[in-house]
Amino acid sequence: MSIESGTTEVSREPGGDQERAGFDEIHILWISEGMSCDGDTVSMTAAGQPSIEDVVLGLIPGLPKVNLYNKVLSPSLGGEDFLAPYRAAARGELTPFILVIEGSIPNQNIIEGDGYWTSFGNDPDTGEPLTLNWWIDRLAPKAWAVVTAGTCAAYGGIHAMAGNPTGSMGLSDYLGRDFRSRGGLPVVNVPGCPIQPENFMETLIWVLHHAAGSAPPPPLDHMLRPQWLFGRTVHEGCDRAAYYEQADFARDYNSPKCQVKVGCWGPVVNCNVPKRGWMAGLGGCPNVGGICIGCTMPGFPDTFMPFMDEPAGGSLSSILIKPYGAFIRRLRGITNIAVNREPKWHHNKPELTSGYAPYWRPSPARPQRGTR
């Protein structure tokens, strides 16, 4: 298997004279051997705007040529054939590349004696399994960019909850918040359990445009999430938000009303799924009757458990909004009745009662133009 390095080209920043290097070819090394279920890879394959096929086939203008290595999507025979680009990158022979990590990172330091939590291939000399941590230690410093796929890789997720024996954590916890890739980027976190397909692909496209020299670095928030995707709450994009404003709450899961009283954390969770949908713009947890359990958040799942219990603060906020909501709901009901009527001039009588009086027609109620 031949491994070719991406060539470098020079691009000029739009509207300025500053030049910086960009790549016309780049590799994506995707490792899903973290503590995970591979659900993020499966979810990513559902993306349509754009799809991973569009990226790999070079159908998106301005992107470098992309060579993707992912075990679920790989056409290789597996084994050493599949591992070849990863081994080449670890030796520094495959550049540039973007490292995508799926799954949380276990703490190998807490294991006494032999053993490992998760591995990816074997050492060719000893035959011993190579841990995920071994690969991250060698690949992350050489990567042009490092991206996490899903909450497990971003913040630890399910495997990092209280009481777990693995000491699992997110990738930025493992590498340190001061980590910077070869491209000068911190870890780019795309949380979700699993990732919303277009959220991940949109972030990857931005990183690829940046690698091509045609875009600035993606703007990230303090938890290293893309700001334009996670800057708003579930509540702000929820189909049921108006019911909250009117203090009209669901009491069971069959109701179309606001689900805060039955366990929804939407008002405080950063996520755009209700607004964006899940596949082809359809779905999204509250849109289809599910409560938000905060799966995109750094404290998931511990902060949001037990699921289906009313969130902390939900009782107080719903009590405070109740008199306002009831008053507003009543006023809107009255106005709704008033505006659900046709105007009185809709009739088939001989007189015109719409108030229509053109200025060129004399009217006893209004003098002609030019007269006083």
TrEMBL record:
InterPro entries: Cytochrome-c3_hydrogenase_C, NADH_UbQ_OxRdtase-like_20kDa, NiFe-Hase_small_C_sf, NiFe_Hase_small_N_sf, NiFe_hydrogenase_ssu. It is found in: Cell envelope. Keywords: 4Fe-4S, Iron, Iron-sulfur, Metal-binding, Oxidoreductase, Signal. Its cofactor is [4Fe-4S] cluster. The keyword Iron-sulfur applies. Residues 230-307 form the Cytochrome-c3 hydrogenase C-terminal domain. Residues 37-205 form the NADH:ubiquinone oxidoreductase-like 20kDa subunit domain. It comes from the Bacteria. The keyword Endoplasmic reticulum does not apply. Heterodimer of a large and a small subunit. Belongs to the [NiFe]/[NiFeSe] hydrogenase small subunit family. This is Hydrogenase expression protein HypE.
